[in-house]
Amino acid sequence: MSNNGTDLTTGFAASSVAILLFGSNFVPLKKYDTGDGMFLQWILCAAIWLVALVVNLLLHCPKFWPLAMLGGCIWATGNIAVVPIIKTIGLGLGILIWGSFNALTGWASSRFGWFGMDAQEVSKPLLNYIGAGLSIVSAFIFLFIKSEIPCSTGSTDTTPLMSEHEINSSPDVCASYSWVDKLSTVQHRIVGCGLAVISGILYGCTFVPIIYIKDHSKRNDSMYTGASQYDLDYVFAHFSGIFLTSTIYFLAYCIAMKNSPKLYPKAVLPGFLSGTLWAIATCCWFIANHFLSPVVSFPIITAGPGLVAAMWGVFMFKEIQGLRNYLLMILAFFIILAGALCTAFSKI
Predict the structure, then answer these.
(1) pLDDT (tens digit, 9 = 90+) per residue, 24-39?
(2) How far apart are the C-alpha atoms of 325 and 121, rounded to whole Å?
(3) Residue 17: CA atoms inside 13 Å, Cβ hemisphere, count?
């Protein structure tokens, strides 16, 4: 992989677009009830697969490697928890937590060569370690930030991203319930943070199959010998794994609901838009992986969306309030920004 200025510029530009879109892709859904999220996930993944189809055609249909689908399966499994996470601890805090563990898992697996991958080197290892360490510190700070998820009142200034209903609220104020509404305040916190950590770890493993294929393509005794080194060539297989897995989960959900799944027609178009934004952001991440390497792109792209999402959470959705929370957020932002910068400069 070339280290010239053009490659670095392309990589950082792709990272910037990915950060903006990842931090904003759920915004189109903010006014719509999404229930338990199972129907929404399937709609999101349908949009994701269609974007992948377009990309695949533009790339003239590169060879399809089934192993690359595994990363999509892992991502879809982690993504099932997104709606409950947002309903329990909010958009800003949810993305900050799962983004931190996503960064750590993705960085460590690439840096140390976990899961059969080749360990990736950087020109300034100390800066790279400092960046990863700061991500760990910021993750613990995020756990102490308390979010307030208000019941929808019809105001665009106070409507949360995913409508959440206060415990013991009047039925005529909040008519639709999901399983998270039966949890106490403490349980909300525990379940939301726990699911965010699990999702983050799964997200951090999503590129492992693709990196594995690329690394083994350089070996003459591997079945992947000669496989493409361009990450975007694996988008269609990766996204196909996402759509296939989400479809299986949705069918299982329909069976569990005795063929009476909770469907939300008004969330279809916003969900489709949200999935399209996510798919474009992920394509940009693939490009960043190619030009920067995952050991650099992971800490940057997983840290940035938290900043964007938290701004939505603070200024638009009013999920994070209070001087103490603001100060903790500011501290976490500076730490994670410093970590991202250290990681970026470790490549130069």
Answers:
(1) 887 888 777 777 778 8
(2) 37
(3) 17
